[in-house]
Amino acid sequence: DLHSFPTRRSSDLVVLASQFGIAITMTNISEESITLDFGHYGGMPRGYEFDIRDDKGEPVARYGKRYLHLPNGNTLQYPTELPGSHMTGGIQPGKSIEQGAMLSEVYQFDHPGTYTISVSRKFAGMPAVYSNTITITVLPAATNSPATDQAPAEK
Question: Is-above-0.85 flag for pTM?
Answer without folding.
Answer: no
